[in-house]
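Incident review: delayed structure delivery

Summary: a single-chain prediction request sat in the queue longer than the usual turnaround. Root cause was a stuck worker, restarted by the on-call engineer. No data loss occurred. The affected request and its eventual output are reproduced below so the record is complete for anyone auditing the incident later.

Affected input:
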Amino acid sequence: MMDAHDNYMAFLNHEPVDWIPVFGVDNTLFGGQFEYWENGPMEGGLDGFGNGWIPTESAGGQPALDPANIPLDDVCDWEDVVKFPDLDAIDWQKYSDEQYGIWKPNGRVIEYYTWNSVFLRFTHLLGFENALCAFYEEPEASKALCDAIADYKCRLLERVAEYIHPETYVHLDDVATERSLFMSPDIYRKFIKPGHIKMNECAKSLGMLPIIHICGKCEAIIPDIIEEGSVCWQVAQPSNDIAGIIEKYGDKLSIMGGYDTQGAPGATDASDEVTIAEVHRCLDEYGKFGHSYGFMGFKLKKMIDPVMTNEAVKYGHELIEKIKAEKSE
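Output delivered after worker restart:
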């Protein structure tokens, strides 16, 4: 029997597992909201780019972008206007010590999360509608800014590798809605994909496995995600053909997600029965392959749900034991 660390790494490497990994149980999350220069202070305010953030009641209190603080009007002016955070001004040892003291990895895989990857930061700097138009109206300047964002993330990764030593790196770039991508696949490939490749190659050179977080229906770019070098995609939502993706690409890409957060199971007041039934559906449909699937789910306004987590852990062990028994017959 593998320990939690080795089982999770087997999942990321698309190998058979001893149980279905569960997000937040078999891994521990550093970075994220702790990156105040990326997301502003917890109580709200400006980040290191000049974007403003407002705390919310949903999504575990994570902040939303303040439309009153959009730094860039014209993408062609980005070199004169955009100011990247001063990474050398951060006390990295203190930053690392604080997170180790809070999360206490205890043998779990340490994942470093950085929000606002290439597409998201591009839209934050310009405002959403203006950013999408800029891809078409000013392609040269838009490409240059996207590349500069990726370069900044690589500089960040160098500090993360030196002071935190994570085994994986997760960058969040929600390029899709529940129905489709925000842009055509060709636009994604021209402007966003090159930055992802650069960041992933940098992560690998520093000893971190790259993971991408994309909400929404993004199955049209799964081959691109693989080509970018990502070993795992989260948070896969059931608007995508998750089982089909694992069946077709499970030797190249692991999937974490599955829970229907947009439907009844994602409601804050969903009953225990509804929650448990959805956990079983996910594991039965996506965990049946015995590899390349990890459970991840949450409810609106409730990022951690003990009933969901406990059932996923319990049923995930039972499912793999059942698969092993069937194979041995």
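Verification: The longest strand covers residues 109-114.
Action items: add queue-age alerting; document worker restart procedure.
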